[in-house]
Design brief:
mainly alpha, elongated, 655 residues
């Protein structure tokens, strides 16, 4: 039987189906059928909702499925409770219902853009679950409790079916995709540092190479949340890999601005270079390069007295040790943990605010159209829009995504109409109606697995199940069913209008938001008193925002990615200079004149975005006063001054 199944999959692959996706989606379709039948046997009013939950909870790996199911249940419970509360508070007044729903969906869309991975999904699910409870039976507010309980229990039934089938057949993750690539990038970086020991004539790391490496790190970092799902060990493995990425970003920053090693240090530099070459060789040739960390430790010891090289190599050494230990499910020794770089992730506050306002505005305006016209399909339109305006708000280009959503929902509507008017008229009981739905579910799985229709497959299946409510006898007319299908299609169309005209989401807008948050972070650093922990937290957050900046800029082309990499490193160098200024401000031995120059530089940087170039002279003046006692800090200040002059457009306000 297994051999026959494999031959059928291979035959389907020759006709445009993705074999891996087809296996997964056929397996998921079986779980959907199980959930629908179980929900009907339990006497739930909307058994098709259980099938929708299965499609939503399905994941390719067991840990991901487990964590997503947890947030699915949490979001459903919260959303159902809010939906019931809105119906009870509105007491049949659609204006109040729409207003409350708009406020709730705006809040959920904003939270969904602040949170990450499946927590973000849970927040957005809580939004449109409330819409499902509040909108699908607006003519009978007295049934709000029963509808809320029905929504909750169908979701739980779907989650249980997804877990049951998924636990039996879904593979367990074997590691973090991209971890090998990060270690190879570390090997390249160590060779670059080794070459830098050759002196001022050593080949430098160019802008193109820098952008390519940061781009590779950013792509891997972006996918890490999914790999960390399912267990504390997986979460810790992801954290250690992020620390290794941050340590490499810090080393790249140092390498681009470090003073070349002088000929007076040839023996020391040679020892460091030899140890770095050995570490790079271990990383490139060994699947578990334990000796690479030892070689890095020797390189750090050999770099004593060579500026910031010991600190940079020490961070790389500790981050690599922690990463390798996490692969064996072991912990870093306690004396090393205090020296680890913190993991601080970028939170898109500007994007969250725009998503919140967009969701509120779109739902409220569409709801007013529904209230004003009394259109019978208005509830379905608003329900579809509630999904579009939340789930897709974190996409890079949600307006473009609406095209695939509309196509998928059109296919789902067509399959649902075929089931309703070709199959269900032959049914003599509700049980037969449920059985007649099952082949349509497998048709949806095929749509989801073909290379041409795969981007629209998920929405096809969700629209299909939304419309297939097996209530015997099947009532209404064909044209009423068509109008309900059309109402479903208005959801993504309204979503396209919202994303196109209400605070539109664009690549340039996302880049501008990241730039603004990085500059505001630098201003806050200049204004605040700096503690040791603050320094590490601020730098870690800037590292992550740099990676996001490079990742988003790729959508605008390779030249934009290079420019983003250089501008992001310039922002990091200004951040290093600000931290240096705070350190210098605590040195009373510098004298009154130097202290005044340092305070002036910090004041200028507190208003960095107003006139960036005005901060450069202040930084140079502070560097001149600090040169004697703190030559490395003076070098950092001069480098930041040059960055402010060369990259003034990046730091300047766009208002």
């Amino acid at each position: 039987m297994s051999a026959l199944y494999d031959r059928l999959i291979d035959a389907a692959a020759r006709h445009g189906f993705n074999g891996t996706a087809l296996r997964q989606h056929l397996r998921t379709a079986c779980a959907v059928c199980l959930a629908v039948v179980a929900a009907w046997l339990l006497g739930l009013q909307h058994p098709q909702w259980a099938g929708m939950t299965v499609w939503a909870a399905s994941q390719p790996l067991r840990g991901q499925m487990l964590e997503k199911s947890l947030f699915r249940v949490t979001g459903t419970v919260v959303g159902a409770a809010v939906g019931v509360g809105l119906v009870l508070l509105a007491r049949g007044d659609l204006l109040w219902l729409v207003t409350g729903l708009a406020l709730w969906l705006g809040l959920c869309a904003g939270l969904g853009n602040l949170l990450r991975s499946f927590a973000s999904y849970g927040a957005m699910l809580a939004g449109y679950t409330a819409a499902m409870v509040a909108l699908l039976d607006t003519g009978h507010p007295e049934q709000a409790y029963s509808l809320g309980w029905d929504r909750l229990f169908t979701a739980l039934t779907g989650v249980f079916a997804a877990l049951l089938v998924g636990w039996l057949f879904t593979p367990v993750g074997t590691g973090i995709a991209g971890a090998d690539k990060i270690r190879l990038l570390l090997a390249q970086l160590l060779r670059d540092i080794a070459r830098a020991t050759q002196g001022p004539h050593a080949p430098a790391l160019g802008s193109r190479q820098l952008a390519e490496r940061l781009s590779a790190m950013a792509a891997i970092e972006e996918s890490l949340d999914l790999h960390g799902a399912g267990s504390p060990r997986a979460h810790e493995a992801v954290r250690t890999l992020r620390r290794l990425i941050y340590a490499q970003v810090s080393a790249l920053l140092w390498l681009r601005g470090a003073t070349p090693f002088t000929p007076a240090e040839p023996v020391q530099a040679r020892r460091m270079a030899e140890a770095l070459e050995q570490a790079a060789h271990e990383l490139e040739t060994q699947p578990h390069p334990a000796q690479a960390a030892a070689a890095l430790g020797r390189a750090r010891d050999a770099a004593a007295g060579l500026g910031n090289a010991p600190e940079v190599l020490g961070n790389l050494d500790i981050a690599l040790q922690a990463h390798l230990l996490s692969l064996r499910h072991a912990a870093l020794p306690s004396d090393h943990r205090a020296h680890q770089l913190p993991v601080v992730l970028h939170s898109d506050w500007l994007g969250a605010r725009r998503a919140m306002l967009r969701a509120f505005g779109a739902i409220f305006l569409a709801g007013m159209v529904w209230v004003g016209t009394g259109w019978s399909g208005g509830a379905y339109m608003l329900l579809g829009l509630s999904v579009m305006i939340t789930v897709f708000s974190s996409f890079e280009n949600p307006a473009r995504a609406m095209r695939f959503v509309t196509l998928g929902q059109a296919m789902g509507v067509a399959i649902a109409l075929a089931c309703q008017w070709l199959l269900w008229p032959m049914a003599h009981s509700q049980w037969q109606m449920v059985l007649m739905m099952l082949p349509c579910i497998f048709i949806g799985a095929l749509v989801f697995s073909h290379r041409r229709t795969m981007p629209s497959g998920y929405d096809c299946n969700m629209a299909l199940l939304l419309l297939l409510s097996p209530q015997y006898p099947h009532g209404g007319s064909f044209w009423h069913s068509v109008s309900m299908g059309a109402a479903v299609l208005t959801g993504p169309l309204a979503g396209w209008v919202a994303y196109r005209f209400i605070l539109p989401v664009t690549v340039q807008g996302r880049l501008q938001g990241l730039r603004a948050m990085m500059v505001h972070e630098l201003q806050d650093m200049a204004a605040a008193g700096v503690h040791a922990r603050d320094r590490r937290v601020w730098r870690a957050r800037l590292f992550h925002r740099l990676l996001r900046l490079v990742r988003v800029s790729e959508k605008a082309g390779p030249q934009a990615a290079q420019e983003a990499a250089e501008c992001g490193l310039a922002a990091l160098r200004v951040g290093v200079a600000i931290l240096a200024l705070h350190t210098l401000a605590d040195d009373a031995a510098l004298g009154v004149s130097a202290s005044r120059r340092i305070r002036t530089a910090l004041l200028r940087l507190q208003h960095l975005q107003d006139r960036p170039a005005k901060g450069a002279p202040s930084l140079r003046a502070a560097a001149l006063r600090a040169e004697g006692r703190h030559p490395e800090a003076a070098r950092q200040l001069r480098q930041a001054a040059a960055d402010l002059e060369a990259r003034g457009d990046f730091f300047a306000s766009r208002a």
